[in-house]
Amino acid sequence: MNKQKSLSVAERYRQTIASRQPEIIDVTAPSGFIFKFQKPSKFALLFNGDMLQLAEPSEENQIQLAKQVFNIRDKVLLLSVDPKIVTGKAKNANEISTEDIADDDLAYLFKWVAAAGADEAAMKSMFPVKPERAAATGGAAAKQ
Fold first, then answer.
1. Which of 111, 129, 94, 112 is nearest to 38 (CA)?
2. Pairing mode of beta strands 95-97, 84-86
């Protein structure tokens, strides 16, 4: 019996998707440095319940938000390609530790992954800068 026929439709679909080469995107951070990332799925975060949602600051909501933040952090680490972003000490030549990345750049990469690789305009609508923050930073926050 043909092995392909013995697979379920779901298994054949997973194999087809797994055989595709991931789309690599150049992501220019605020510093001007270009990071290469696998393009995030627009739906993966949604179906995994990882979309950041702002709600009333109850203890339960804070715990849920922390879980979402860690899940998105894991996606940033997983999807980074060149350099490969790691936590802790970088062990290989192509790795860079989150500790070695400027806060502005790391925040931008985090937002980019959370926005499923959206363009700059879409990211600004998803992560609007509060007017008082933009004024306090001399407008720098608005440029992110």
1. 112
2. parallel
